[in-house]
Amino acid sequence: HAKNLLQAAVVSAVVLAPAVQAEAITLRGASMFDNEHAFTKTMVRFGELVDQYYDGELVMDLRLNGELGVESDYVTFLNQGVAIDYSIMAPSNMATFAPAIPLMDMPFLFRDLEHWNAVLSSDVLAPLEGELKEKADLVVVGYSGGGTRNLISSKAIGNIDELAGHKMRVMGAPIQAQIFAAIKAAPSAIAYNEVYNAIQTGVVSGLENEAASLQNLKFYEVAPHVTLTRHSITVRPIVFSGKSMRKLPVELQAAIMRAGKEAGAFGRELEAREDSAKLKEMADAGQIQLQEFANREQLLELVTPVQDEYAAELGATDLLAAIRAK
Ligand code: MAV
Q1: Ligand 1, from 33, 42, 71: best to mutate by most atoms within 8 Å of Cβ?
Q2: What ipTM was predicted for this assembly?
Q3: What share of the chain is helix, strand, coil (3-state, %, to 5)?
Q4: Contacts of 324 (CB under 8 A, 6+ apart)
Q5: Whole-angstrom Cα distance, residue 241 to residue 169?
Q6: Which residues pair with 59 in a beta bridge?
């Protein structure tokens, strides 16, 4: 019996030898959040799908909880083809590499979820993907997102007068500061992993964010007031480093593209569905106080010319019109 086993082992070792010797390919991703966040779940799903669609040996190594930094770090890594191969990130965090990209997540771009859906299920954003590829060497493999961003602050803000001069953190893209300055707030760009502290020490009195991230990073501990401005519905590309991509077998590249589309759709459905439930959970737990904003129409009037001007500077007036017309 022992001899039989030995023979079996020898036979299978011979048969398996090529596969064992061929080194597994490792693809590393990064999330700023834990397992509960929609971005993490989307990247986990992405990994499972890539593995399912690719025949070769694969290790999906997803690093969580900001172990590898924040999105503004990830974009540099991906551009250089170091440390990670893919992530999900806000277009506004890619502004230094491709100035037109933040058009995708400019506040007040989408009227509602239906409009957002129509845009993301069309190819209207393709020119921006082209720019990202060309200038940043990043490949959009899918679109997640679907959270609605609101004001989150240490003091209650219910109307445009209370918003005047409100010191708030915004993402690094210039268009973000321009929009919030236009609605009379006092925006400053601060790295995401410094925001909690900046609020706690009074450097700013709040930020703007979606429910999933507010809950995951517990910003409510220092900023429990949520004003429902509903100023953005998030567009969050799943991006892959061009430098990493070109080194991979073509079959794996195809699997990544296919998995990206599907994981993106999974993530959009998940985050859009969970958004209001998460707000309610936090409100029910006494972590946040929700408040409507009295003058949303007025905000829209103030930002539209700023959006138009930004698009004009980029030579993207037609693109903005096409997005609005969806
Ligand atoms: C949220 O956590 C996400 O939308 C993420 O993509 C952004 O980078 C982040 O907010 C932020 O405001 O920087």
Answers
A1: 71
A2: 0.99
A3: 55, 20, 25
A4: none
A5: 28
A6: 26
